[in-house]
From TrEMBL:
<keyword id="KW-0732">Signal</keyword>
<dbReference type="Pfam" id="PF00246">
    <property type="entry name" value="Peptidase_M14"/>
</dbReference>
<keyword id="KW-0645">Protease</keyword>
<keyword id="KW-0482">Metalloprotease</keyword>
<feature type="signal peptide">
    <location>
        <begin position="1"/>
        <end position="15"/>
    </location>
</feature>
<dbReference type="GO" id="GO:0006508">
    <property type="term" value="P:proteolysis"/>
</dbReference>
<feature type="domain" description="Peptidase M14">
    <location>
        <begin position="117"/>
        <end position="416"/>
    </location>
</feature>
<dbReference type="InterPro" id="IPR036990">
    <property type="entry name" value="M14A-like_propep"/>
</dbReference>
<keyword id="KW-0479">Metal-binding</keyword>
<keyword id="KW-1015">Disulfide bond</keyword>
<keyword id="KW-0121">Carboxypeptidase</keyword>
<dbReference type="GO" id="GO:0005615">
    <property type="term" value="C:extracellular space"/>
</dbReference>
<comment type="similarity">
    <text>Belongs to the peptidase M14 family.</text>
</comment>
<keyword id="KW-0378">Hydrolase</keyword>
<dbReference type="GO" id="GO:0004181">
    <property type="term" value="F:metallocarboxypeptidase activity"/>
</dbReference>
<dbReference type="GO" id="GO:0008270">
    <property type="term" value="F:zinc ion binding"/>
</dbReference>
<dbReference type="InterPro" id="IPR003146">
    <property type="entry name" value="M14A_act_pep"/>
</dbReference>
Amino acid sequence: MKYLLLVCLFYGVLAKHELYDGHAVYEIDVHSVEQTKLVHDFENDLLLDIWSHAVPGHPGKVLVPKVKRDIFENFLVQNGVQYKVETENIKEQLDKEDELLASAAERSNSSRIGFERMHTYEEVDAYLDELARDYPNFVSVVLGGRSVEGRPIRYLKISTTNFQDTSKPIVMMQSLLHCREWVTLPATLYAIRKLVVDVSESDLVQNIDWIILPVANPDGYVFTQTDRYWRKNRATRYMIANRCPGVDLNRNFGHGWGTASSSNPCQDTFHGAGAFSEPETEVIRDIILEHSSRMALYLDIHSFGSMILYGYGDGVLPPHALQLNLVGVQMAQAIDRVKWPSNRNYIVGNIFHVLYAASGGASDYAMSVAAPYSYTYELPAYRNSAWFDGFLVEPAFIEQAGYETWEGIKVGARAAAAAFRNGKAV
Ligand SMILES: [Zn+2]
């Protein structure tokens, strides 16, 4: 009964997603640098939810509310920008996702953490305790701090030597910093499984200490049960006339803070009052600083787009960019070998050069103070099918997302650990 109730609470059997009724997804194709900037600025002025930036050769996706569709389309036509409406009403897809996830949850008929369904913040948090209880010599749970709304932000430390062997490299990974990117959670949960519960490659646990933070933005993740496309945290102190809560946590870190992000609380890339103004980013900063001398690899798992990106977000490359790129490509190839054929191959590159300028990102900060190998993964969250898009999760993909991403993580961890042992990390 309790389990059924949980399922109902999570998937929401009541009328949901009214907020997104009539919202359309546009695919925008730009052909010049001028058009790129024009479209980007207009999307920002309209406070649209930009899912991916359009750049020449790579169409972008943007979510447009019903009331803004006319003005947006007029702008595109007037400026000769090619576009197509990919989804007329996103609410239909949101309802479909609920239906698929709810029936997957019924089929799985288990309250245990697995890969048949999605898990709530509370379930994941309880799971961390369970692991620490079952593997006391190997796993510990640490309370890093509390979110804006007071939820514990807890992470796992996995080590055969209780983090006492200072000659070992550390690999840190996190998911759900952007809370709507649900498919990132299976990636960290799968890593936990392969490092703790079902260990098939013991070198990874013998040679490396691991830090895993599955829910980096707990308030946001809980809120996505109500508002599926929520991206930021739930800070209320910047609100304007009671509107526009939240800070984009991946623009709130202390590397280049505020140089390529928004000062407008109503935008999805709002950077907050200053670097680390939010408790959620403070927690991550403190972990990174505490372990800076040993952190060999840092992975911030996002979705979507099938990309492995490295810093810096302003396009400036670090001195070891060649090694960064090389390891990035090796990770991507490992994933590509086992990915679903319907998903495209991973793209590897510098954030700025592949996508756009972005400041205050977690992986930039980690690389600037600690981890020589630091990446943002953008997982594929869809099967390139016409009816299921962007951030939504197909139940059949949950385990695959965990499995294929782990193939990449392993390659990165081994490469970064080898570089650390050879003392030529940077
Ligand atoms: Zn993201």
